[in-house]
Amino acid sequence: MVRFKLGVVGASQLSFPGDKKSAFGHSVEGLKEIAKKWDFDLYVYPETVITEEDALKARVVLEDEKVDFVLLQCTSFAAGLVVSTLARTKGARLGLWAIPEMRAAGIVSFNSLCGIHMYSSIVAHYLSDYEVKTKWFYGDINDPRFLRRLQITVVALRAIKKMQNSNIGLVGGIAPGFNDLYDDERKLIKLFDGMRINRLHEYGELKEMAESIDQARVDKKVAELKVEAAAKNEAIDTQLNAVDPSKKTSRMSLLEVNARYALAYDDFIAKYKYDAVAVSCWPKFQDDYLYSVCSVVGEINDKGTPCGCEGDLTSTVSMLLLSYIADDITMLMDLSAMDENDNSILMWHCGPASKRFCKKNGYKYSLNYSGKDHEGRDLDHAVGTGVVRDMVFDEGAVTIARLTGECDTLMIASGHTQDGSKESYCGSRGWVDGLKLNGEPISALDFFNTLMARGFQHHFPIVYGEFTDELMEVAAWLGLKKVEKVAYQDYLQQ
């Protein structure tokens, strides 16, 4: 199990008269409670660091403890060589913490704020070749601003650590022609050093698993699926019209194919211990079954394994990051309409969203459009018809984020899904208004123009909640650029 570990160190100078021991002890007791509440591991360095020799000794211990983040408290102004040493702790990022003075006038108690100012400057200038990033903190352990800043850091760094220890599979490659989704896994592995990616699985591996599952297990799954949905299109029980009538699968219903692949992916994910999977959901499914795998993708996401469709590995990695940030289930959508009247965009896809997004009204089993309507008319001649989840998303705050460029940029947006009364297309969908880009309000037109001018990929990982700050922090620690707004103009913008 991947655990985030914070190490706290107190640095002081003997000449300042404040009660440094009590101040640091008060901070430590508060951090212990926070660690329990936020579920991370805490290591407290037991000695006060005063000299360079003290710092060298502390650094060895912190490295042995494998801390992920060193929170260096200037309990009082301390020697500059302390930060020069601790900033080079292997495997750990650095935070600088100042505490309030004991009194507002008279002899200065700690000179703590000045201490972290000097420390940050030493790191920025004297250690410039090391490219060490620092985040400053100020306040008592119970100060709301201090707590919010620290919480953002814990969430962001914990997510990065989980990403570095993740295992991701790609099945079947990118959907044909979707070349904007092309990715180089070396960029992802470099960004999240330690991440494992296997892009060599073929569709045939899942097909073999699906078709070999015991019929009794399949029948049980079909019965469970029928109970799961709020409603269903009766055509999902229709026997497939096979491309090749000699195939065993020609005698299956759409729902049975759905059940077999849902079970196959359960077994596949368990076998390889994947944290996320990207699935090329067409065209091979359609070639064999006249079927699309949308509802299966939704079910994989239901179970907490981010699953991106159309073989979009980078979006799947982005979904995993969002899931670690929010501790929640994600989905992958297209942007399929824009409405300037209420500055909203329609997030839509064929039908692969998790039931997490429609708790209010549930979803209906329906059929993929494929040039035909969702009521299944002309099913005998439909190409690519399969089981989808027809749903309207619940109202609420959402965050949208995806790696882009050469995995050197992070698009961070947020908004609010509407109440569902507005007309929309069949599939998994919801209108999103109150749009923000990098935390700043943006119109629907400017948002779409930004995507077009920047050449952003056509997929959008989404999670419920507002996590812009946490994602901005992830971007800062990893050195990622942001997708900056391009305000709409009538002339060509590149």
Task: Give the gist of this structure.
This protein is of the alpha/beta class. Helix content is 36%, strand content 22%.
Detailed description of the structure:
This protein has 14 helices and 20 strands. The mean pLDDT is 93. The chain is an alpha/beta fold and 494 residues long. It has two domains: 5-164, Rossmann fold, CATH 3.40.50.10940; 167-482, no CATH class. Helix 2 (52-65) runs parallel beside helix 3 (80-86). The strands form three sheets. The chain has a six-stranded antiparallel barrel with strand order 11-12-17-16-15-19.
Number of strands: 20
Q: From the helix content, strand content and strand pairing, which structural class follows? A: alpha/beta
Give a short account of the largest sheet. 6 strands, antiparallel, barrel
Strand content: 15-25%
Helical stretch tally: 14
Helical content stands at: 25-40%
Number of domains: 2
What does the average pLDDT come to?
A: 93
- Judging from the principal axes of the Cα atoms, what is the shape? elongated
Span between N and C termini? 45 Å
Rg result: 26 Å
Unreliable stretches, pLDDT < 50, 5 or more residues?
Answer: none
Order of strands across the main sheet: 11-12-17-16-15-19
Task: Give the SSE layout.
Elements: E1 5-11, H1 20-38, E2 41-44, H2 52-65, E3 69-74, H3 80-86, E4 93-98, H4 112-126, E5 134-138, H5 144-164, E6 167-171, H6 185-191, E7 196-201, H7 203-211, H8 215-228, E8 231-232, H9 254-272, E9 276-279, H10 284-289, H11 294-302, E10 307-309, H12 313-326, E11 330-339, E12 344-349, E13 364-367, E14 387-392, E15 396-404, E16 409-417, E17 428-437, E18 440-441, H13 444-454, E19 460-464, H14 468-478, E20 481-482
